Amino acid sequence: MKVYKFGGASIRDIERIKQMAVITRSTSSGKTLIVISAMGKTTNALEKVAEAFYDKRREEAITLFNTIKEQHLTIARELLIKEYPQAAEHLSGFFTEIEWLLHDNPVQEYDYYYDQVVCIGEMLSSAIISAYFNQEGIMNKWVDVRDILRTNDTFREAVIDWDISLQRTADTLKPLFGETDIVITQGFIGSTDENESTTLGREGSDYTAAVFANMLGAESITLWKDVAGVMSADPREFPEAVLLKELTYQEMTEIAYNGAKIIHPKTIKPLQDKNIPMYVKCFLDHSLPGTIIKNNN
Ligand code: ASP
Ligand code: MG
Asked: What's this model's pTM, rounded to 2 decimal places?
């Protein structure tokens, strides 16, 4: 079993989603869990919807949400042919979830609404990509991660309940691999025991992928990024920066906590605990070696 994670930049438009299919087809073999972020800057756009709603600027919230909705429907229409009707129905369920909410008045804390609105980005991207993969013959099952990852109710910084999530991974996620080699799910989100959506902190999809790698006892995890791998410094500021081919968990943790935006800092611990190697690979050219992060031995 392997875990792949594709971030927002890797799926920001039709060309990149097609490229994602090429990468998956040519590099994955055997069982692979694919964890997906929201497309491009969708999370930022959804944050604006949540803010407008909470400030009681309802019309603005609805208009902003309609733009996001249209963007996703346009991409779905262009990518999908025979899978379109079913996918459109899938998407419209998520649109309705938000539209109902936007017609209410806010009575709870902001962070609660933030999570209910923002989590939709990952639901939409993963639904479109799952349908596209099936259409292209990359057979897969789509799963709502909120049925698997249980968290507490610290909205926007939710903490995973490992015992329950592990149990559900065994009961709900693993059996799907009996039906197809590829299962597609969402990064960054989970849900409480009352089925409220939660988010794990911005850029949290790397962390979700690592949590699943740990729970599934995966042989490796690959983060597909739009960079060549982990660099010694930010190449935009320091042209002499070089690619780091190999790092230990310790070194990677230090780099991540020192503010390099390459991976989410919480990602390393679940991998280190089970000695699972992590690859940071270039989405634009998958023949590049990238960086491997593992123990020194
Ligand atoms: N979509 C979320 C964000 O932009 C999570 C992620 O990309 O990892 O923060
Ligand atoms: Mg992102």
From this structure: 0.96
